[in-house]
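Hi R.,

Here's the chain you asked about this morning:
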Amino acid sequence: PSQEVVAGVSFPRAEGAGRCPPWTGVSAEPVQGLLPSRSWVSQGEQTATPPLGFSKTWPRWELCPPLSTAALGTLDFSLLYDQENNALHCTITKAKGLKPMDHNGLADPYVKLHLLPGASKANKLRTKTLRNTLNPTWNETLTYYGITDEDMIRKTLRISVCDEDKFRHNEFIGETRVPLKKLKANHTKTFSICLEKQLPVDKTEDKSLEERGRILISLKYSSQKQGLLVGIVRCAHLAAMDANGYSDPYVKTYLRPDVDKKSKHKTAVKKKTLNPEFNEEFCYEIKHGDLAKKSLEVTVWDYDIGKSNDFIGGVVLGINAKGERLKHWFDCLKNKDKRIERWHTLTSELPGAVLSD
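And here is the predicted structure, written out as tokens:
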């Protein structure tokens, strides 16, 4: 086998380990750039002391799991957080040396993404499946919309490689996880990692962080139309309300107080999706000076035939709101004829709202 030189010491490269070094730490923390004595694995044998001067700054150190998992294969991908557009772009490039899963010694691999906490259909994205290969090249970009700076601090991206099986359940090959706080806004970070065995998902995650989804709303006060233009652009990661794990969402808007009950607007229903695009705009004729006394109530619903529709979540923008909801409203009042677009988190409780359809 070829040699790998680390800290002036030459080591044989481990068989089948791709680009992983033969020395792989079980648990070690660097002290002044060097790794102290710990339990180490080298070519399947344990030894008390790693090579002198073996540093965590070695280019592929943190990307390599124990050698027992190296046979699962490697994955190349890149991540980009577009801060201005609240989007996380995940480009899945290729995999190499995947573990054979089928009788023919090959696999039908695809990649799926989840954001943790919250691994549900609402935030699952996946690539296409490539047939009969252990070295697939996807070059496919999957995008999460409605990603906030808070998400980038709090969430972790789970990337799993699976084998599609037409007649049985799809099989798991390997995974990796990337805490989003490792990414720098507006800078593409490229990864080349060894896949690991399946890691447990924390089922006890804080329920207070549970969300009903996100909605992208645009506001503009039009001097020409003498009215408020409300744009319902899209939703992301909506809560699933139907037995099939999806929803049939639509959005309603009200400008309150609404004495005459004439301010209701409603989008079209989008079938079987948790990430619908609406791109609809409604106009409320109102004097600019009267907007300060009003609030905009936006609710998302799941359409059901033959029974009452289910409330998914909502948001209220206005002078009595807080945080981003207040800032969005204030920026609209302050900037006539300027379209201002913002993502908002949907909540299950709206004080004073009428939650029946």
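One quick note: Confidence is low (pLDDT under 50) at residues 1-69, 204-209.

Cheers,
M.
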